[in-house]
Write a structure and sequence with these properties.
8 helices, mainly alpha, 71% helix, single chain
């Protein structure tokens, strides 16, 4: 296990712990994002799926931010699909990450999100359509 992978393990434990210090958790997420280690993306995306299955909007928000930072616009489909699940939160942070990625690379966003507008899951299709509104 790499140092960065052990940081992800620690982050996941903190996200699951209701007693974990919020500032420390956010700082750790920022540290992981700053590594630039794209090899962490499959693990982070798996943990994002688990957070959604566990109905944990806080974990979805933080993990989505780390995935956006490490993966860039290429991860827009992952983030749009994650945001399509209603966990009862406002999703401000996740929405901002999606908008930033769309505006950072409009051509990639268009290429990756346009097919999602025809997704069988109407919520995913609607979220992709929403995200494409931010293409400059």
């Amino acid at each position: 296990m790499t140092t960065d992978d052990s940081r992800v393990t620690r982050l996941v434990a903190m996200l699951d712990d209701l007693e974990a210090d919020v500032d420390e958790t956010i700082d750790l997420a920022d540290e992981i994002a700053a590594t630039g280690d794209r090899e962490l993306l499959p693990r982070l995306e798996s943990e994002l799926d688990r957070a959604i299955a566990d109905r944990n909007p806080y974990a979805r928000e933080l993990l989505g931010g780390v995935i956006a930072a490490l993966g860039g616009p290429d991860r827009l489909p992952v983030l749009v699909r994650a945001s399509a699940v209603d966990l009862g939160d406002d999703q401000d942070g996740l929405a901002a990450e999606i908008v930033d990625l769309v505006q950072a690379d409009p051509k990639t966003a268009e290429r990756l999100l346009r097919p999602l507008t025809d997704d069988d899951d109407l919520t995913v299709a609607n979220r992709a359509d929403w995200a494409l509104r931010f293409v400059p």
